[in-house]
Amino acid sequence: MGKRARTSLDTAVVDVWKREVGELSTRNFAHRLGASEDLVLRLDLFRKLENHRGCVNTVSFNADGDILVSGSDVRRVLFWDWEAGQVKLSFHSGHNHNVLHAKIMPYTEDRSIVTCAADGR
Asked: Which of 76, 23, 29 shows the shortest CA–CA distance to 54?
């Protein structure tokens, strides 16, 4: 078996973006970057966002990449201006258990989100 070619940084960054917006399947993403030590070693902390009071279980960008949504164990959902490091909106999700996933729906002008939680809703 031959060695897998190293992924260039430019290609890796594009693949991460494609995965986030749904243009690259999970299987293809894992195959391309799952063992990319080069990419992992180049990652760095840009900003630490602090406002949740429990474990953060999910983060997801909108399609434009300027808004981040996060969900936590304390059942709150936050919308962030991640570049400024500030919360734009914070609300209780309505779930009875930990928010496990939150996603801003595409083609809704960032006005609709979908969440799921440990309560099965």
From this structure: 76
Q: How many CB atoms lie within 10 A of CB 86?
A: 10
Residue 71, helix vs strand vs coil = strand
3-state secondary structure 48-67: CCCCCCCCEEEEEECCCCCC
pTM for this model (two decimals): 0.66
E strands present in 1-121? 56-61, 68-72, 76-81, 86-92, 99-104, 113-117
Whether pLDDT at 87 is above 90: yes
Q: Is the pLDDT of residue 86 over 90?
A: yes
Tokens (6 digits) for 90? 């914070």
d(CA 25, CA 33): 12
Backbone angles phi, psi at 38, to 5 degrees: -60, -45
